Amino acid sequence: MDRDAYELEFEDGFEGPDLDERRWLPYHLPQWSSREHAAARYQVGGGLLRLRIDADQEPWAPELDGETRVSSLQTGLFAGPVGSAVGQHRFSPDAVVREAQRNVRLYTPQYGLVEVRLRASDDPLSMAALWMIGYEDEPQRSAEICVCEIFGRDVRRDEAGIGMGVHPFGDPAIVDEFSVEAVPIDVREFHVYAAEWTPERVSFLVDGELVKTVEQSPAYPMQLMLGIYEFRGEAGPTGSGPYPKELVVDRVRGWRRRR
To answer: Is the previous residue joined to 221 through a cis bond, with omega within 30 degrees of 0?
Structure first.
């Protein structure tokens, strides 16, 4: 990858005392639930973002997503009127807009390089991810680019399974091409996960090293989704383990190709 071919257009190093809401919306797909139930729990300070799942946190959308708890940020939001099925990432056929939302585009690039430096958890019920979804102002603009998806159950001291690839959802031009790649790193330490997105392909990198390339590409603006998820319904007889469950993020950057 020729980094000199890119120029920085989005950056958050979480230096201030508060989340910069010019860059992030602190909710997870609130149109299918509500801003109250989809609100992220987090702390910002010392140059770090800490996204948390707490013991008393309620499921974000229990009728649609069961016991899943989420603390997630996103850089855009698009939804239709209350009662409609119009909205981003309609992951369930039963989903309808439950609360009116203001449609916003804080950072919705089309092509470029997206990277995050983060520290994930080995909690077996949690998952950390940076992914991109189509802004979906048209239904077919709905594919996903998964930059990294790290389940705690796939974490070992010197290796982890890291999910990466693309999902079509409602985009007929994209074929599902996703895999979990074994990468020889300890994800409980900080590492850089990135996707280089061009009109021809998407390449996935860890610490600057190419891991996977997909020879297809969504051709419309997409937004960032950064979050930690807990699948408490999968808890065994020992329960859900210690809290809080935490994703620690050092920085997020987006680069556009120089003209």
So the answer is: no
With cut-offs at 50, 70 and 90, classify the pLDDT of residue 237.
very low
Q: By C-alpha distance, which of 78, 102, 100 is closest to 33?
A: 100
C-beta atoms surrounding 166 within 10 Å: 25
Mean pLDDT along residues 77-84: 98
Listed by start position, the domains of the chain span: 3-257
Please tell me the distance from the alpha carbon of residue 78 to that of residue 135, in angstroms, as a whole number.
7
Q: Name the token pair of 47.
A: 């140059």
Q: Which residues pair with 100 in a beta bridge?
A: none
- Whether residue 6 contacts residue 255, with contact meaning beta carbons closer than 8 Å, is answered with yes
**CA dist list (Å): 71 to 76, 179, 221:** 16, 24, 23
**Average pLDDT estimate for 75-93:** 97
Torsion over CA: 187, 188, 192, 195 (sign): positive
Residue 235 clears pLDDT 70, i.e. is over it: no
Q: What class does CATH assign to 3-257?
A: mainly beta
